[in-house]
Q: What sequence folds into this?
């Protein structure tokens, strides 16, 4: 079995071509309107289903990093 990549060159690759609006990117409620934050999404279909995608809000078509839910929870817990 081949391991999935932990990033994609363009976050648009995470969208389901049958329903391009199904993937919803979320920002923190603490973010401002200056587009200087990260956004997260949970792809529901495809090889990335179940992972958490993270991208830069300033570059919505740019790369996205992929994390398991456990890894992301550990990361955010360490920041607190």
A:
């Amino acid at each position: 079995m081949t391991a999935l990549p932990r990033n994609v060159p363009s976050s648009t690759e995470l969208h389901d071509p049958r329903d391009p609006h199904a993937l919803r990117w979320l920002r923190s409620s603490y973010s401002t309107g200056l587009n200087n934050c990260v956004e997260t999404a949970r792809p529901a279909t495809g090889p990335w289903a179940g992972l958490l995608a993270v991208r830069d809000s300033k570059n919505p078509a740019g790369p996205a990093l992929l994390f398991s839910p456990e890894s992301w929870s550990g990361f955010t817990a360490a920041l607190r």
Q: What stands out?
A: Helices lie at 69-79.
